[in-house]
């Protein structure tokens, strides 16, 4: 796989549906599970599948993502492995931004083809899943396919949010429709007994593709007006080429909005989470930080994930994810929350200076109550602060926080004075 396959991870657009988490960073750079970034998921899946050469295509708010990749993915000097950033750039031939997924690959193709490979694996940078790409590529080769699309069975309710496919007895895709709103009964597929018993009768595209090298180069050169794989390139290719459906039945979620992001993170606290971070065959790689162990004093913990370097003195933490360097004060109660933590510790001198001035410290103060909330990185939340998210709150975007689907998102670096109530 190391010699045959090159991975390309798409950094995504503005990520407005995940705002305010994407106000200062791209979607793949958003912290997940307390210690990782979203981009670590596709990169780790590649590394676990023996694919060691990857490009990450970026455009919006890419500084944080660039820094993370630069500080994380280092390989031996005697290895051909790399994870390189390809940022949108002006050239003599093109002075514009990436206009879509296919256009992003097209604009970067002169960098990509300088490497030897037979197959190119195109991935999204904002999905949560664990997949063995070796099996997918082997099926692609066996079927003599020109394109393989990873598909996942979904219910009728979810089918309207995806591109839906139909395949023949050899799993060759025969037709495609983007986000169907009516006539769903015509798109029912034989997804297998187990999937059908769960009502998952429709094959949805996962946005994961394998292309033969020469085929991809040709199809991008022939149709320069086509900017997107899902909406333009693939529907036409299905009518002209051998396009294979690779059915995946494991856990997969598209981190498309605040609600799905929140559910995916809190789902990790389940007794048997659908996304298994403890599987040694699917290691999730990330930046190796030399942080101390977490310290917990007088806290009742229930269904909680705690990353490294935390100092926890809360009275109760339930159904929550606490990210790196989280600091939580005494008598504080946290439920249904993702606390992202911080990028640094304040020194004792800083703490004394800020306390004397009556300022909030980085972290969460004493006697706070936080429910149904995401606290972005480096927030300073004072004492006696109450944040109670839920359906009683209307959606809105404010200076220090936003509310989406009843979830309160405290913006990165926000300072909430003592006594604040949301």
From TrEMBL:
Ranges for domain Nucleotidyl transferase: 7-270
Q: Which enzyme class?
A: transferase
Gene3D superfamilies per the record?
A: Hexapeptide repeat proteins, Spore Coat Polysaccharide Biosynthesis Protein SpsA, Chain A
Kindly state which keywords UniProt assigns to this record, in alphabetical order.
ATP-binding, Carbohydrate metabolism, Glycogen metabolism, Nucleotide-binding, Nucleotidyltransferase, Transferase
Out of the domains of life, which is the source? Answer: Bacteria
SUPFAM superfamilies cross-referenced by the UniProt entry: Nucleotide-diphospho-sugar transferases (SSF53448), Trimeric LpxA-like enzymes (SSF51161)
The record's section on InterPro entries has:
ADP-Glc_PPase, ADP_Glu_pyroP_CS, NTP_transferase_dom, Nucleotide-diphossugar_trans, Trimer_LpxA-like_sf
Record family assignment? Belongs to the bacterial/plant glucose-1-phosphate adenylyltransferase family.
The protein depicted here goes by the name Glucose-1-phosphate adenylyltransferase
């Amino acid at each position: 796989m190391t010699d045959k396959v090159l991975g390309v991870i798409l950094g995504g657009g503005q990520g407005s549906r995940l705002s305010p988490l994407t106000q200062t960073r791209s979607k793949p750079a958003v912290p997940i599970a307390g210690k990782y970034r979203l981009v670590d998921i596709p990169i780790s899946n590649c590394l676990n599948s023996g694919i060691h050469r990857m490009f990450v295509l970026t455009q919006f708010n890419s500084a944080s993502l660039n820094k993370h990749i630069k500080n994380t993915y280092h390989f031996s000097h005697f290895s051909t492995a790399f994870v390189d950033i390809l940022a949108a750039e002006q050239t003599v031939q093109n002075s514009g931004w990436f206009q879509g997924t296919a256009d992003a690959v097209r604009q970067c193709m002169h960098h990509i083809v300088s490497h030897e490979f037979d197959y190119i694996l195109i991935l999204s940078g904002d999905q949560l899943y664990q997949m063995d790409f070796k099996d997918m590529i082997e099926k692609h080769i066996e079927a003599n396919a020109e394109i393989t699309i990873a598909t996942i069975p979904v219910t009728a309710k979810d089918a309207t949010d995806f591109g839906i496919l139909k395949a023949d007895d050899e799993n060759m895709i025969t037709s495609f429709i983007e986000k169907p709103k009516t006539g769903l009964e015509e798109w029912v597929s034989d997804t297998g007994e187990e999937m059908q018993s769960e009502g998952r009768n429709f094959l949805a595209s996962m946005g994961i593709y394998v292309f033969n090298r020469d085929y991809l180069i040709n199809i991008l050169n022939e149709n320069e007006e086509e900017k997107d794989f899902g909406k333009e390139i693939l529907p036409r290719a299905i009518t002209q080429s051998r396009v294979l459906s690779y059915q995946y039945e494991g856990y997969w979620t598209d981190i498309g909005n605040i609600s799905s992001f929140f559910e995916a993170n809190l789902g990790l606290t389940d007794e048997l989470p659908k996304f298994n971070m403890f599987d040694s065959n699917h290691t999730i790689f990330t930046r190796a930080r030399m942080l101390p162990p977490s310290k917990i004093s007088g806290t009742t913990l229930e269904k909680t994930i705690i990353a490294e370097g935390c100092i926890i003195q809360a009275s109760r933490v339930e159904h929550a994810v606490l990210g790196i360097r989280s600091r939580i004060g005494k008598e504080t109660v946290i439920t249904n929350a993702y606390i992202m933590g911080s990028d640094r510790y304040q020194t004792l001198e800083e703490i004394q200076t800020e306390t004397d001035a009556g300022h909030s410290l980085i972290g969460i103060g004493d006697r706070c109550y936080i429910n149904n909330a995401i606290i972005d990185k480096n927030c300073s939340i004072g004492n006696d602060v109450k944040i109670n998210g839920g359906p009683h709150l209307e959606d809105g975007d404010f200076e220090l926080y936003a509310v989406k689907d009843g979830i309160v998102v405290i913006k990165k670096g926000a300072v909430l004075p003592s006594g604040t109530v949301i």
